[in-house]
Design a protein that fits this description.
Elements: H1 2-32, H2 40-44, H3 55-61, H4 65-78, H5 83-87, H6 91-101, H7 110-131, H8 137-166
Length: 173
């Protein structure tokens, strides 16, 4: 009877010890996949076509403060600095709301508004992936790339809008 009780106690000790090692391995894996391991070099390795604003468009976008904040946020994301997402839970929402509400009339077209909507979605996705503790480094990089591509496409569309406005096409009667 004592031998049987001794075997049961030993079995429980072994099971408890094994579970502790497994938990430590899971903790190590989780720690290596945290978003803190994302550095500027990782973001710089992302391959995408980047468009900057044309100087003529910059003049039009200069008084558009929400766009300036979006540009600053994008530059921070390129440096793997996600402080914008840590500041306030409503920061992303307020930025997008202001971006849509204060767009200059000269740039307000359906194509530009649709690009802003895409930037909005990618910004929300990046915000959520950054704040989730279960997000892996490749998932976060994918979100960063999607956001950067959408921002670049917004710049491209703004450039195209001004270029189209500057064309003087004479149509024959």
């Amino acid at each position: 009877m004592i031998l049987r009780l001794f075997k049961i106690i030993c079995f429980c000790v072994v099971i408890t010890a094994c579970n502790g090692k497994k938990q430590q391995e899971i903790d190590k894996t989780t720690k290596t996949n945290t978003t803190n391991s994302l550095i500027e070099a990782d973001v710089a390795k992302l391959k995408y076509l980047e468009f900057d604003l044309d100087p003529k468009v910059e003049v039009l976008a200069e008084p558009w403060q929400p766009y300036t904040r979006l540009k600053t946020t994008t530059e921070l994301v390129k440096k793997a600095d996600f402080s914008f997402f840590e500041e306030d839970d409503q920061a992303v929402f307020e930025l997008i709301k202001d971006l849509k509400r204060t767009i200059p009339d000269t740039l307000k077209t359906q194509s530009v508004l649709s690009r802003i909507t895409i930037v909005e979605n990618m910004l929300y996705k990046l915000d959520e992936n950054y704040k989730l503790s279960t997000t892996t480094k490749p998932e976060l990089l994918s979100s960063v790339k999607s956001f950067l591509v959408s921002y670049s496409n917004l710049n491209f569309q703004l450039n195209k809008k001004l270029e189209k406005d500057n064309q003087n096409i004479i149509r024959p009667n």
